[in-house]
Amino acid sequence: MFRKFAVLAVAALAMPSFAGSVETAAQLRDKALTDTTAWNIVETLTSEVGPRPIGSASYARSRDWAVAKLKALGFTNVHVETFPEPAWIRGAESAEIVGAHPQKLAMLGLGFSVPTPKGGIEAPVVVFGSYAEMLAQPPGSLTGKIVLVNQPMTRTQDGTGYGSAVEARNGDSEAAKRGAVAYLVRSISTSTNRSPHTGWTGGPGPHIPCAALGVPDADMVAALARHETVRIRLKLQSTVDQKAVAFDVSGEIKGREKPDEIVVIGGHLDSWDPGTGAIDDAAGLAITTAAAKLIGDLPAHPRRTIRVVWWGSEENGGSSEAYAKAHAGEHIVIAGESDLGADHAYKVALPQGMPGLDEVMAPLKTIVSPEPPHHGGSDIAGLQEAGVPILAVSEDASRYFDYHHSADDTLAVVDPDGLKQNVAVWASLVYLVADSDIDFHKAPAK
């Protein structure tokens, strides 16, 4: 798998101009392994701003914080781009087992759930061990019931366990079609602690109130339901602000020769409300920003412009489409997003071979994939759909879903060494891309 890239690397070293790029990329890599910029960004964002759901006061503060931070780090053309995006606002909420074995349940309402009546909903629970099992039920079979889908999530390095489990979080409309009055889901999480994990739920209606239970609580309800009828009282008092405004914040390292050719990288600024959004996604925007700053501090900038974008509406959705529409006329040569925590990166992927990439990445024990990336992230999906090539850096997601979307997503779970290693990968990779003449829109010659 490495032969093709090894040949390219040797060929590149025979070219003095690119040999210099490889040497600089290696220097960036090594400097990043001792650089603390990314950690400082995560630490200050999570402590000075905190959780950042759209529609909140802290979300508004994050805009001014982001502008000041990017300017302080030396970026130019720092600005804010706004777009309308409805905001779901969490209100008072609770869930409890009532009857012979009363217990309060660890629960979080799911984003864009409809609220319950003020007095709540009380009904017997029907438990399914998988989402497919619930979908197999005929219309009307769940009338008057609260549904609980208690489907475990598989822990995987590449995050595919989440992809196969998260469908269950969007099951309220299917439960409603079968007559259910509310929908509960085991948190889409690999953790065994009680912290429930929230997340967006949506799709076509009809909709009923829906929430996630902590993993042990979902198991407890399932255990009780095997022996008796379990009744749950659920209260969700959320609202939606249809006039909310979201934003993206960006800054640039201007290219020295081809400033109109733009490499877009970044992460998302918004977060869910239970924790402080440290790994989702303060870490991602910190990694890409710190990498770009290291490049910007070089005596000479790369040929192309590097633009760092802090997308402001990933959890709600909207940033991807808004950004792609606003920048449709630009020459974006490639785009990449970091949004899977900060544990060690183990794979990089590009649309085609990058001279010198194996040489630079080898000391990081990072595998250069011979396959092009298929999905670069939610916020660059709009660019990808518009034909912009993407790059991808894969972080080890083995423990990411223990924390994401929960109260445990805090600075305490960020690995400082993993954060630095990610910056090293991004800094060297992005520099090679930005200092090259490769047209990633064209398929490589075979």
Question: Your description of this structure?
Answer:
The chain has two domains: 3-87 and 243-434, Zn peptidases (Aminopeptidase, 3-Layer(aba) Sandwich), CATH 3.40.630.10; 91-237, Glucose Oxidase, domain 1 (3-Layer(bba) Sandwich). Residues 1-16 have low confidence and may be disordered. An eight-stranded mixed sheet has the order 4-3-10-6-7-8-9-5. The protein has a five-stranded mixed sheet with strand order 1-12-14-13-15, sandwiched between helices. The protein is elongated and about 75 Å long. Helices cover 32% and strands 22% of the residues. α9 links the parallel β13 and β14 (304-311). It has helices spanning 3-13, 16-32, 37-49, 57-72, 131-135, 160-165, 172-177, 215-225, 278-296, 319-326, 357-361, 381-385, 416-434; strands at residues 76-84, 87-89, 93-98, 103-104, 107-109, 121-128, 146-149, 182-186, 210-213, 231-236, 239-241, 245-253, 258-268, 304-311, 331-337, 345-349, 367-368, 392-395. α2 (16-32) packs antiparallel against α13 and α3 crosses α9. The protein has 446 residues and is of the alpha/beta class.
Please describe the structure with a list of short key phrases separated by commas or semicolons:
446 residues, Aminopeptidase, Glucose Oxidase, domain 1, 8-stranded mixed beta sheet, 5-stranded mixed beta sheet, 13 helices
Structural class: alpha/beta
**Tell me, what is the CATH class of the largest domain?**
Alpha Beta
Question: What is the CA–CA distance across the termini?
Answer: 15 Å
Mean pLDDT: 94
CATH topology of the largest domain: Aminopeptidase
- What's the gyration radius in Å? 23 Å
Largest sheet: 8 strands, mixed
- The percent range for strand residues is 15-25%
Number of domains: 2
Determine the number of helices (DSSP H or I, runs of at least 4 residues). 13
Overall outline: elongated
> How helical, in percent, are the residues?
25-40%
Gross CATH architecture of the largest domain: 3-Layer(aba) Sandwich
Poorly predicted runs:
1-16
Total E-strand runs? 18
Q: Kindly report the spatial arrangement of strands forming the biggest sheet.
A: 4-3-10-6-7-8-9-5
Name given to the CATH homologous superfamily of the largest domain:
Zn peptidases
